[in-house]
Write a structure and sequence with these properties.
4 helices; 141 residues; mainly alpha
Length: 141
């Protein structure tokens, strides 16, 4: 495994970050029936693992890895905002309160987006920093 550490181009970190968003959303959907705590933990784990792998397996500097995973966190938060806002707006419209649906959907969407951003950012940044430390330790060995 040591021969694979730090060998990929630094630009691969962007693919790892995008994959974290896609796999995280899929994993959250797959674990939705297990409760919100389990889904959040799995989402955090996906970002943590991706952040670690992105930094440990590429030549990326810390700033590039952190930037990639913060932008991926923004992307995931924006996607959850849109999904939540639309779901609430459709629900209130079906109940006959279409006027209130937009404002309520936006408020709940922002709440969900902020939580999603913090969970994914903590996982991605934590994984990236751990990957950087692991890459440096393995290079010194």
């Amino acid at each position: 495994m040591n021969e694979k550490i730090g060998k990929l181009s630094a630009h691969w970190v962007w693919l790892f970050a995008l994959a974290a968003v896609v796999v995280g959303v899929g994993a959250a959907y797959a674990t939705a029936g297990l409760g919100s705590k389990v889904s959040s933990a799995v989402y955090f784990g996906v970002f943590l693992t991706s952040g670690f792998a992105a930094t440990a397996l590429t030549k990326a500097k810390a700033l590039l890895s952190l930037s990639a995973f913060l932008l991926a966190s923004l992307l995931s938060a924006a996607s959850y905002y849109v999904v939540t806002m639309q779901a609430v707006a459709e629900t209130t419209s079906a109940l006959g309160a279409a006027e209130a649906g937009g404002a309520l959907g936006a408020a709940i969407g922002i709440f969900v987006a902020v939580i999603t951003f913090f969970v994914s950012a903590a996982g991605g940044v934590g994984g990236a920093l751990a990957g950087l430390r692991a890459r440096k330790q393995l290079a010194a060995a």
